[in-house]
């Protein structure tokens, strides 16, 4: 038994010394001291040893286990120290060097303008509603009083998925979907991305953003429209801002108008920013056409309403005095960091 234990001890010491990694060292521990290890097997065989010899054999087994455990622990500490020393040598940090600067991002000019518009209308009791960008031709055109042969459809030519599906040209379809639910009254704005077959230049893009607004209730008049948009313009551009409504044509509203605001740079006197006019166009609006109400299941003899729509990029260009729409999408850090 003494010779057997000495052989186990010698084998363990040899394998420990030959170990070149912590994983290998653990394998040696399991091989000799684990549940199925060589030294554990000796302990299990002690039942066959005469009673008078068991104390002596037990002491020899414990001495062998202790010697192996001590060498394992010493070797483990040496290996861990060697690994740490190598890591420290390879990962030297010069605390005198300047720290890496963290560049935090911030909101895009479009996002800043959108949040400002939403804040104003939510403060007036409106809700913000979103809808699909890929829309049925019916919602995008027909339900807005633009049948297939209507000349206004050519002005809003878009990208067709098939004969019945298009990339929406405005967020007006969201208004139709809300009206169809029949939950009146309605006070909502619908921001979102829209698409038109336009060439890219300083003021046009095939993909841009719009904010459409809609109010449906009893006894709504053009005076409500004027008062709402006048308050919106003052909150967005300043308390001294004046508004002017010019007659216009939209197939989904009647009467229709375009809204101009007094130039907030020159106070309406005329300058380079407003091209000497003293006024700046910002949106289109009008009273919801009775045909649109009927197609959405609303009785125009009981309910009336108004609608308006503006380009988000146009609001951002005016508010931050940007002269080229393409700057909003070129991701030039020199431009974006100004906001």
CATH topology of the largest domain: BirA Bifunctional Protein, domain 2
SS elements, strand count: 9
Mean pLDDT: 86
Spatial strand order of the main sheet: 1-4-5-9-8-7-6
Order of helices and strands: HHHHHEEHHEHEEHEEEHEHH
Rg over alpha carbons: 40 Å
Distance between the termini: 84 Å
Enzyme class: ligase
GO molecular function: ATP binding; catalytic activity, acting on a protein; magnesium ion binding; phenylalanine-tRNA ligase activity; transferase activity; tRNA binding
Subcellular location: Cytoplasm
Keywords: Aminoacyl-tRNA synthetase, ATP-binding, Cytoplasm, Ligase, Magnesium, Metal-binding, Nucleotide-binding, Protein biosynthesis
Question: Could you characterize what this model shows?
Answer:
The chain is an alpha+beta fold and 339 residues long. The protein has two domains: 2-90; 109-336, Bira Bifunctional Protein, Domain 2 (BirA Bifunctional Protein, domain 2). 41% of the residues lie in helices and 19% in strands. The chain has a seven-stranded mixed beta sheet with strand order 1-4-5-9-8-7-6, sandwiched between helices. Strand 6 and strand 7 (253-262) form a beta hairpin. Helix 1 runs antiparallel to helix 2, helix 1 (2-18) runs parallel beside helix 4 and helix 2 (22-33) runs antiparallel to helix 4 (54-90). The radius of gyration is 40 Å and the shape is elongated. The relative contact order is 0.10. The model has no long low-confidence stretch (mean pLDDT 86).
